[in-house]
Design a protein that fits this description.
Elements (H helix, E strand, L loop, with lengths): L10 H4 L3 H21 L5 H8 L3 H29 L1 H20 L4 H29 L3 H32 L4 H4 L1 H15 L13 H22 L7 H23 L13 H31 L4 H7 L1 H40 L9 H29 L5 H31 L11 H7 L3 H11 L1 H36 L48
Keywords: Antibiotic resistance, Cell membrane, Membrane, Transmembrane, Transmembrane helix, Transport
Protein name: MFS transporter
Membrane topology: Multi-pass membrane protein
C-alpha cells in the first residue's frame, strides 16, 4: 500500500485550527515569489541607467528568474516528494534570501543576471512545496478548497502588486530596494517555517530519477525560452526561436516516454488519463495565457497612451487585485454550490465579457470603464484558476502531491509565456501595418517605429516637426487598433476555455472517511490520506479518484 508520511510534525502545526497558521506561512512564502516575478518590471529603466547592460543582458535580467524557475519546478517538486517537502521549502527560503541580497547589491549586469537565476532556483523550490504541503495539511476537501482559495488569491495579489510596490520603491529609493525587501521577510519566515511547518513525503519507492529530472528541466527551459523569444518578436523559423522549441519539445517527449516505462516514475503520467486532472491543467494554461498577455498590453496602454506614471499604472491595476482576493475568499462557497464544471466555465465566460468590455477603451482616460473591466477580469480569472487548481490537486494522489503541484505551476508558467508570445504576436500583426506609410516619415523610421509604441515615440521625437507629430499620432492609433484586435482574440480563447471546462466534474465530490465523526482536517495530519466510503482502504493512494 502506498503511504504518505508526515515525519517530524510540530505540535502547533498538526492539529486543530493551527493548520490555518501553516497556511499563513505558506501564503507569505508564495507572496514573495509571486511579487518577485513582476516587481522588477518598473525598475528596468533605473537598472538600465545604472548598470548600462547590453540589449541581450537586459533581456536576461528580466527573463532569468521566470525561465530558471519554470524549468526547475518538476525537478524540485518531485524531489520534495522523496526527501521531504518542508526540507526543500526551507532550503528554498535560504537561497531566495541570499540571492535577493546579491541582486540588491549587484554592481554589474552579469552579477544581477546570476542573482536573478539563483532567485529562480529558490522560487522553484518554494512554489510546488507550498501547494503540496497545503495538500497534506488539509486532507478534507471542503477546507482544502478554502485554503486553495486563499493560496490562489495571494498569488494574484503578489503578481498584481509587484508593479505598485516596485514603482513606489524606485521613485523613493534605488532600484536595488525591490530585492532588499525580501531579506527581512525571509529572515523571519525561515525560523517560523522550521518550527511550524509539518514534514511530509511521498511513497519514496525506488530511486529518484535524476536523468529524468534533468530532461524535464532542460525540456521546459527550451520550450519556455523559445516561446518567450517568439513573443519578443523572433521569427518562428529563426534559429534562436526554433532551436530551443525543437530541443525542448524533443526532451519533453523523451521524458514522457521514459516516465511511462519506469516502475517508479517521477511523475505518474497516468494522471493525465484522468479527465478532471488533464482538463484542469489545460484550463490553467488558457487562463494564464489570457491574463499575462492582457496585463502586458494593459500596462503599455496605461503608460504610453494614457501617459500614467509607473506608480499610477500599478494603482490602476489594484481593482483587479481586490477582485481576485474576493474571488478567492468566496471560491470555496461557490465551488460547493456550483461544482467545478460550472464554476470554471462561468469564470471563463465572465472574463471573456470583461475583455470585450475593455474594447471600449480609446484614446482618452475612462476610469469607470477601466475599473469595471479590471474588476470583472480579476474576479473571473481568479474564479477560473481557483476551480482548476482545486480540481487538479484533489484529483492527484496524496503521495504525488509534489509532482502534481509542479505540473500545475509549470502549466502556469507555460501559459504565461504562451500568452506573451501569442497575444504579443497578434498585437504586433495589427499594430505594424499602420506605420508603413505615414506622410513625411522615411521608410526606415517607419520600420523602426513598427517595433513597439515606445520605440515609435522615440523615433517621433528624433524626427520632430510635423513628421514626428504625424508618426506619433499614427503609432497611437495603430496601438489602440491592435489592442482591440488582441482583446477580441483573447475573448475567443477564453470562450474555448469555457467549453473545455465542461469536461470537469459536475459536482464537488466530498466523501466522508469511514468512522469519522468530524471532518478529518480537525485531527492530526494523517500518516496516509483517509479512504473514501468503500471497503478497500488499500486503494486510497493509488486509485484514480481524488484523495480527501
Amino acid at each position: 500500500m502506498t503511504r504518505t508520511t508526515t515525519a517530524g510534525l510540530r505540535p502547533s502545526a498538526g492539529v486543530g485550527t493551527n493548520r490555518w497558521v501553516v497556511l499563513v506561512v505558506l501564503c507569505v512564502s508564495l507572496l514573495l515569489v509571486a511579487l518577485d516575478a513582476t516587481v522588477l518590471h518598473v525598475a528596468i529603466p533605473a537598472v538600465t541607467e545604472d548598470l548600462r547592460p547590453s540589449a541581450m543582458e537586459l533581456l536576461w535580467i528580466v527573463d532569468a528568474y521566470p525561465l530558471i524557475c519554470a524549468s526547475l519546478l518538476i525537478l524540485f517538486g518531485t524531489l520534495g516528494d522523496r526527501v521531504g517537502r518542508r526540507r526543500i521549502l526551507l532550503l528554498g527560503y535560504a537561497i531566495f534570501g541570499t540571492a535577493s541580497a546579491v541582486a540588491a547589491l549587484a554592481g554589474t549586469p552579469q552579477v544581477l543576471i546570476a542573482a536573478r537565476a539563483l532567485l529562480g532556483v529558490g522560487g522553484a523550490m518554494i512554489m510546488p512545496a507550498t501547494l503540496s504541503i497545503l495538500r497534506q495539511v488539509f486532507p478534507d476537501r471542503r477546507e482544502r478548497a478554502t485554503a486553495i482559495g486563499v493560496w490562489t488569491a495571494v498569488a494574484a495579489v503578489g503578481a498584481a502588486t509587484g508593479p505598485v510596490l516596485g514603482g513606489f520603491l524606485v521613485e523613493n529609493f534605488w532600484w536595488g530596494s525591490v530585492f532588499l525587501i525580501n531579506i527581512p521577510l525571509m529572515a523571519l519566515i525561515l525560523p517560523l517555517g522550521r518550527w511550524l511547518l509539518p514534514e511530509s513525503r511521498g511513497s519514496g519507492d525506488g530511486p529518484w530519477d535524476v536523468l529524468g529530472a534533468l530532461m524535464a528541466a532542460a525540456g521546459v527551459l527550451g520550450s519556455v525560452l523559445g516561446v518567450k523569444r517568439l513573443g519578443g518578436g523572433g521569427t518562428v523559423l529563426g534559429l534562436g526561436t526554433l532551436g530551443p522549441l525543437l530541443v525542448g519539445a524533443t526532451l519533453l517527449v523523451l521524458f514522457v516516454r521514459r516516465q511511462k516505462r519506469r516502475e517508479h516514475p517521477l511523475i505518474d503520467i497516468r494522471m493525465f488519463a484522468r479527465t478532471a486532472f488533464a482538463t484542469s491543467v489545460g484550463c490553467i494554461v488558457l487562463a494564464m495565457l489570457a491574463l499575462v498577455g492582457l496585463e502586458l498590453i494593459a500596462v503599455q496602454y496605461l503608460q504610453l497612451v494614457l501617459d500614467l506614471s509607473p506608480l499610477e499604472t500599478g494603482l490602476r491595476l489594484l481593482p483587479l487585485t481586490f477582485a481576485a482576493m474576493a474571488a478567492g475568499a468566496t471560491g470555496s462557497y461557490t465551488l460547493r454550490r456550483t461544482g467545478p464544471r460550472l464554476m470554471v466555465s462561468l469564470g471563463f465566460v465572465l472574463t471573456a465579457l470583461a475583455v470585450l468590455l475593455l474594447t471600449l477603451m480609446g484614446y482618452h482616460d475612462r476610469p469607470a470603464l477601466l475599473t469595471t473591466g479590471f474588476v470583472l477580469l480579476g474576479f473571473g480569472l481568479q474564479t477560473t484558476l481557483f476551480g482548476a487548481y482545486e480540481s487538479m490537486l484533489s484529483e492527484a494522489p496524496a503521495d504525488r502531491a509534489g509532482g502534481a503541484a509542479a505540473i500545475g505551476e509549470t502549466s502556469y508558467q507555460l501559459g504565461a509565456g504562451m500568452g506573451i508570445a501569442l497575444l504579443g504576436s497578434v498585437m504586433n500583426a495589427a499594430y505594424a501595418p499602420g506605420l508603413s506609410r505615414v506622410a513625411g516619415v522615411p521608410a526606415e523610421a517607419g520600420a523602426d517605429a513598427a517595433n513597439s509604441l515606445g520605440e515609435a515615440y522615440q523615433v517621433a521625437l528624433q524626427l520632430g516637426g510635423p513628421a514626428g507629430q504625424a508618426l506619433r499620432a499614427a503609432a497611437r492609433d495603430s496601438f489602440v487598433h491592435g489592442l482591440h484586435v488582441t482583446l477580441v482574440v483573447s475573448a475567443g480563447l477564453l470562450l474555448l476555455g469555457a467549453l473545455a471546462a465542461l469536461r470537469l466534474p459536475k459536482v464537488m465530490d466530498c466523501p466522508v472517511p469511514e468512522g469519522a465523526a468530524e471532518p478529518p482536517a480537525d485531527r492530526e495530519v494523517a500518516a496516509e490520506v483517509p479512504a473514501p466510503v468503500r471497503r478497500e482502504p488499500a486503494e486510497t493512494a493509488g486509485s484514480g479518484r481524488a484523495a480527501h
